[in-house]
Protein 1
Amino acid sequence: MNTTIMLFLVQDGITNGAIYALLGLALVLVFAVTRVILIPQGEFVTYGALTYASLASGQLPGTAKLALALGIGAFAFDLFVARKALHGRLILRSFLTNVVLPAIVLALTFYFAAQKPPVAVCIALSLVIVAMIGLYLYRVAFQPLAHTSVLVLLIASVGVHLALQGLGLLFFGAEGQRGPAVLSGSFTAGALRFTGQSLTVYGITIAFIVGLWLFFGLTLYGKALRATAVNRLGARLAGIRTTLSGQIAFLLASVIGALSGIMIVPITTLYYDSGFLIGLKGFVAAIIGGLVSYPLTAVAALFVGIVEAFSSFYASNYKEVIVFMLLIPVLLLRSLAAPAVEEEKD
Amino acid sequence: MQSRLPILIFALVMAAIPFVPGMPPFWIVLLDNIGLTALVAMGLVLLTGVGGLTSFGQAAFVGFGAYTTAVLSTAYGLSPWLTLPLSLLVSGLLAVLLGLVTVRLSGHYLPLGTLAWGLGLFYLFSKLEFLGRNDGISAIPPLSIGSFKMLSPGSIYYAIWVAVIVSALLTMNLLDSRTGRAIRALRRGHVAAEAFGVHTPRAKMLVFIHAAVLAGLSGWLYAHLQRAVNPTPFGAQAGIEYLFIAVVGGAGYVWGGVLGAAIVVVLKEVLQSYLPLILPGSGQVETIVFGIMLVALLQLAPGGVWPWLMSFLPEATRGKKPDTSLKLEQRPRAPGQDSVLLHVEKARKQFGGVIAVNNVSFDVQAREIVALIGPNGAGKSTTFNLITGVLSATSGSISVLGKKVDNAPPQEIVKLGISRTFQHVKLVPDMTVLENVAIGAHLRGHSGPISSMLRLDRADEAKLLAEAARQIERVGLAEQMHQLAGSLSLGQQRIVEIARALCVDPMLLLLDEPAAGLRHMEKQRLATLLRELRDGGMSVLLVEHDMGFVMNLADRIVVLDFGTKIAEGTPATIKTNPEVIKAYLGVAA
């Protein structure tokens, strides 16, 4: 094997792996806090990427309207729950966060889309739009099911995935899109060429991993989320609002997803349905990491990215087979090593 | 136990449908699809709803069934009837292979693991040369009987629905049997089931294979209905879809699978044909509406549609009482009074730095009631877990009738005649008291899954249920025999656990806080029962906090404190032992 090719592949693998790491982290986070296996994570990626690309090319992304529609839905759910005791302040707060906020963002999007905004504005708007979608989605689809089993939550998650993917086709069409680079320019070190884009990917991934680590280790909200993850009822008794924990988890997951999308859309063309596979590779990393450990997930994700890069070079036909079959030996090891622990299920 | 009449009516209705004049042929196609989907969903009901093992990979098994017959009947010209057993065999064997890897996974690893190999296999189907890559295999011969070829959807209809109804019957038979009870206990964790001799990995493997074979059958039928296969219907999306069909229908119910298949297939069809009329132009509107409806349906009926519908029907008549004149063989009793039944020698259990049980030694003689007491955290339940093989001791030895048994698995311990109850009740709440108690007699029956499916197990089964009913009467819960265990009060559930332990025909009964949650009269009745058992030749080792109860009942008391034995003796000596008083009440400084 040629060293240059190998270095290239490793570099490519690390770039992809960094994205899988971010997604894997988000999946672990959401599962731990809400018990939802977030299949729509991939849609957050495509929504983020394609919203960014549309904005950059001066089109109004449909996701901004979706955010408003979901927000109105969330407000309706809040009203319905509170119908017995209508509390002015709470209703107003719900109205502001669920209706006024997305309406303002929609108006801003409308304004900026017409005049081909700079990259920074596109990124900010895309992030805010997808973050709101994630937040309202939790309220509308998952919060009413919070008490049910993991299985029911999983199926609901599949339903959301289908609906979002269908909406994605509606908003962005069947053609793929590419976005402008977040950071242009490049430099070479030996045989390798580092683009500003790939450096952004590394930087943001590392920043997020450190950020999450600090958030969970040091802040009160982070600790509350961890407490919810360990014992939902206990957390409630200790005064932690478990709905709030769920909202934060979904918010983080959608931001992470959108950010990943924005980072890869300048490198690869994304289609409305590309998110599913990308999200699943994040899953593979998360499973290898055991769905609990953030650093392990990150390492596993880099590994997945590198394996993918190598197998697409040497056996591109079997690329997906190899990546997904990678899990089997890992699971085998886990099942041999794991002691038979009794689980108290629902 | 279920009445077969509704199934017969259902079968007759299904048989009559093609003869209804003016029946649109398209409806028959839909019914064919419902039947094919229902077969897979039924397997998932058993696997996921009943056994608690979530699988996304079922579509791959459909693929195995379909591709097996496709290859064999086109490339090798085998008759489809010959490929049927081969299709099922291939699905079953691959289920064994995949099951060996995945079934042991716990919790959420399992669904994700199945998702992984489901995806991997899909790509394999679409890349392998001899499976025709993405184009698949076409020109598969139709099913035929003599010169009659099942070319139209209407003619294969009967083959499909016979398969559905026969599979449903076999599956229901399986669930209503010794093996079925073991399967139904899986979802509630394995400790209780294993304490009565159930090999939980084997039971999991069994449902996994059963579900895979049903999926393979569906695949075989699919290949001969379409007469062409390609990888698309066997991908991860399809695997996910099968799972939500089972959940929408009602994941714990065989007919829920059929109903779920009907709902989803019809809903998709309706959405596909009518939505474009309402909302013309745009692409995948039906997917969007379908996804939203799925979430809405789950919010309205999280348990699935079948149980929701059933709740409108009048409650089914209770099962009849088993014929208690049938007897099971009993194990020979230890002869004299003085033989040592259980000998615990310097048993020690460490969890990291915590010594839960610290070199504890004691004996239990034949025909003796021994109480293990001590403050909370003294190591009593851990000692129980060491004796029954749930935990393995760090050091020391445990012998039963002079034979060393330390570190034997729970399934072996129970064979020696040691049975137990649990401090935190471990019953299956959605099974009746009778069925729960019958799990106790698991090792005293011999029928396997195949004979259960074919109902060849009835003589064996009647004896097991008779034994269970006898023990339920013995503990005084005859009234509640056919109620769901989850509907009983906590105290009664503890008594049910005792009945279940008695079904083992034990020499030594281990009771973990049996009197907790009982009323005064119930405690007295329990004490009387335990004395009777002792006089009948059984020994009892119990953990209990109610001192009045213990002092009146026990022949001998062992006191633990912080994992260490601090006293042993008759109730009278224990009451005045200064060490014991210090442990319980503390001592003045």
Note: Chain B has a mean pLDDT of 86.
Protein 2
Amino acid sequence: MTTLNTESQNPMGERVSAAIRASAVFILLIVMVAGFALAQPAYINVTNLMSILQAVSVVAILGAGVTVTLAVGGFDLSIGAVAASSVMAASYAMIVWGLGVYETVPLVLLFGALVGLVNAFLIVRLRVPDLLATLAMMFLLTGLQLIPTAGRSISAGLILPDGSTAKGAYDPAFLLIGRSSFFGIVPAPVVIMTLVAFILFVLTERTRLGRLLFATGGNELATRLAGASVPRLKTLAYVLSGTLASLGGIIVAARVGRGDVSSGASLLMDSVAAALIGFAVLGLRRPNVFGTIVGAVFVGLLLNGLTMLNAPYYTQDFVKGAVLVGALALTYGLGRSQAR
Amino acid sequence: MPLLRIYGLAHAFGPTKALAGASLEIRSGEIVALMGANGAGKSTLVNVLAGTLAADQGTMTLAGRPYAPCSPAEATDAGVVTVHQSTERVGAPGLSVADALLLHAYADGSAPFFLSRSAVRRRAAEMLQNAGFELPLDRDFADLTAADRQLVAIARALSRRASLLILDEPTASISGRESERLYTILRRLRDEGLAILFISHRIADLNALADRAVVMRGGTVVGEFGRPIDFDRAVETMIGRPLRAARPNARSFHGAPVLEMAGVQLVAGSTPFDLALHAGEVVAVTGVLGAGKSRLLQAIFGTRTPAAGTMRLDGKAYRPTTPATAIEAGIFMAGEDRHRSSLMPSDWPGSTLAPTVSLPHLAKWYPLGFLLGAREKQEAQRAIDTLGIKASGPEAPMTSLSGGNQQKVILGRWNAEPSRVLLLDEPFQGVDVGARHDIITAIRANTKRATLIATSDPEEALEVADRILIIDHHTLTPAPQAERSAEAIEA
């Protein structure tokens, strides 16, 4: 029978293309690392790999937050601004108010949560479309962080708008968050990133709450009719995303040791890109925390390798963009042509 | 000579043979009903005819010439126009009805680049005159009823000199009165020489329209019935087994009601009504579109607050404010249109069978919050076994199930935990006769809860219910007991 032929070919083809989609990012990752290691043996040593992970940790943490908002069918554009204003807030708290690490960290996390709450209020209560609400919040925060210091960056000895000099300084214990290493090898930010990744992975993929978060993004009406509180789930997602963004800000502040006005400029784009590259990881075609982390690490490995091979700094954005375009083409293009 | 001749058409989706050598002839000036259970191959056949799918094998000739459209545009050019079930996509909100009528002319460039509003109106009016029915040309397309949207699509088809019109469940989402109007229009078009092929599960449609019924099963045409159509035989051919007496003996119920509604006004100014539901009782509410069927169910489920009245559940005051409070109190609802109200999109977490069953029960089944253990798989397997769901197992994607089996899964979801009242809004939408029979049996087998079903099809109401209520202008009246027939209800 001639139909037999088409029958056996089709599922084979589909299975193969599914397998390619599921592992494509990992195959690329291995090929890439092997290539860089051959060209530049220093690339593969532990110190360099750790510095790569440290470099991507903030993006990965913010990306995890974006992933959660994507899961509920939303989008948080304010995370970059939240992270940047958290850097300013942390610096202000320590340098102007003279607070220590134990007051500063909870305060800044609370600030992030509060921004998430306001975002959720705009989106859930006032029904502002999520992109617009968080975009507006982004503008608001970008401006807000300039006001307390009249546009100046914050470092020890800051001259306040009223002419007096700030007396506080960065708490050395706070700086440990960004600068210390466990066992002399693993930087603290990498440990924090790993913890965040693990907790969020379990939360989104292995708990009832995660199931409901995704259900909200998949079919809001069905979720509501199943008895879940959609407003509460969405609020939770934005609060999580805001809190994670401020955690990212804390790490940046602890690493830099001062409150730079322009810090966190590229954080939004990079973390959104990580979350979107994550769609391609495992061929899931949907937001997932594991994919986001892999996406962030992927970009980090690539950029570091190119830097080691003396690729000019200004090509970085182009490379990130190319990776994103490729990943999205992989996610949506491959295997879909047969479906229709 | 027949207008369309199909011979030995085959198409496979992976291992599934959706079409396995289907042959069919359609003459001009004839209305042919295409019947078949879900998965029988009707949709695939229509898609091949409409040019959205290419056949693996077989030949088609249209008016004597070979016909093998590669795209819907090619099919339309050849004179085969398909009106799909979801008519929202015929136009777009913000377009006037006149614009929606001319949409294809804008797209294929046959309309001039610069068009005044009056020119658009004139052309649209001409189209309607040729088609022979009226539509409000200046209204926004989004304000049209489903029935009118369908007429827009038909008018467009006619303006493109269609010789074969294909309709996919044309009356699925329109009321009885609107169906009558559609029947009249379709019969006139047939008399003018148009060939019409329509898919429908409704006996009323077949009765009113079909000159001939073609029955498909397993991807081939298994039977043809000329007028007068023997529907019982046709349905038996369709499901491949004898039809047991579907009409149940109505049971009567006494004693304390489970749910009592008193002096309820669904909307301000409507006539108040009372309603009592007893344990084990199956009550159907039927009425035209917009009469308030869904609103009644939503009032009980807490998604819409009635204007006035009280409810008591097992004698205690019941005032739901959200679905969560209703579910907590033991009132479950499966909403209208399962894709919109119950299912996740494909490839999304929770789009397989087991999570579909467990969604409302997650808190109960996983009190610690972690999805550990096989509880939802066991419950899903139980639903598969008790309801006879045809699926590869609890992990099967919902999209791999036929409409009838999807609906069984939804019923399985709400059967998984004990309830006091089950509300079902149009539970037989897109469900074939065989699956409908299983679902009715399962609904009637539960003696612990009361079941309230909203349906716009009086036949379905007769089949499933112990008691039928008619809703009109948001108020309930009992159906005439003496003549509980479909005609009496429709009148």
Note: Confidence is low (pLDDT under 50) at residues 1-9 of chain A.
